[in-house]
Amino acid sequence: MKILMMGSGGVGGLYGGRLAHSGCDVTFVARGAHLAAMREHGLLIENETQGNTLIKPVKATDDALSAGTPDLIVFGVKLWDTEAVAKSLKPIVGPHTTVLSLQNGVMKDDILRGVFGDQAVMGGAAYVGTHIARPGVIQQVGTLQRMVFGEYDGKKSARAEALLAALLKAGIQAEFSNDIRRTLWEKYTFLVGLSGATASMRTTIGPVREHPQSRAFLLDLMKETVAVGRALGVALPENYADDRLNFADSVPGTMDSSLHHDLKNGNRLEVEWLAGGVVQLGIKAGVPTPCNRAVWDVLALHAQGKLR
Model's pTM, two decimal places? Predict the structure, then answer.
């Protein structure tokens, strides 16, 4: 399987690295110091529990078109780059190329379908704790490396079977979903709550869930997300937010969100597609979303990165 990883950060680097280590033909698209380090030293996945994995040599480039036509393109770029990157790849997308996004949110595949058409796009959700520790090095926190994916028509296609086999061979906990839209909204519900609460309150999940007011706000963020999803026809249980609050009680209190991490580091934020996504889709569905609107508004001055 010839794979092009668009974005080689925490998600793209980890999954692409595992696939390359298992024998798949993987090309990583990266830039700057990260690209230079990968070319010189290879790609290192650090994991305190499982031990480190070095992929060397590694195929890495800053010119995706030079990779030729792949069987699979995996999107791991930041959400604001999705449409521009997708359009840039059209010259190398063949009639049998599959496009799979592991990005955050539920709006990503609509963007990709607008560029590549419905047939090319397969839905996917990644569950992993990773980040770039330093150029050429992906640090994985814990052992979770799960991916759930599927066709939007719910059928288990030949390409889905091939991807499942490749992921399992790479040691990734891979699962096929026969309702990938629901799967994406399930992840989105918790992600919206986690990211909105931790970023707006500048703390980790532990303190948020322990204080009555902040706990109620966390729950309301998720309730709004569920209400919007259900109004749009997603098969989420009415009490799914309560289920996710129970899940929030089960995770380490130090759990953080990438949104809060980016806020602390003065980076551009994906808030427009997280809390902002709930607001925009809520307007479309006729569902009020005041708590998510508050998060979007509170972070508006930081959405483009550190205030100058």
Answer: 0.91
**Per residue in 212-225, pLDDT tens?**
999 999 999 999 99
Report the distance separating Cα 157 and Cα 245, nearest Å.
34
Which 8-state DSSP code applies to residue 79? G
Stretch(es) of the chain classified as CATH 1.10.1040.10 = 182-302
Domain 2-178 classification at class level: alpha beta
Interhelix angle 212-231/180-201, nearest 10 degrees? 150
| Domain span(s) for CATH 3.40.50.720 in the chain | 2-178
Whether residue 28 contacts residue 61, with contact meaning beta carbons closer than 8 Å, is answered with yes
Q: How far apart are CA 270 and CA 90, in angstroms?
A: 25
Q: Which residue shows structure tokens 């997308």?
A: 93
Q: Does domain 182-302 bear CATH number 1.10.1040.10?
A: yes
Helix (H) or strand (E) holding 24: none
Structure tokens, 256: 């953080």
HEC secondary structure over 124-144? EEEEEEEEEEECCEEEEEEEE
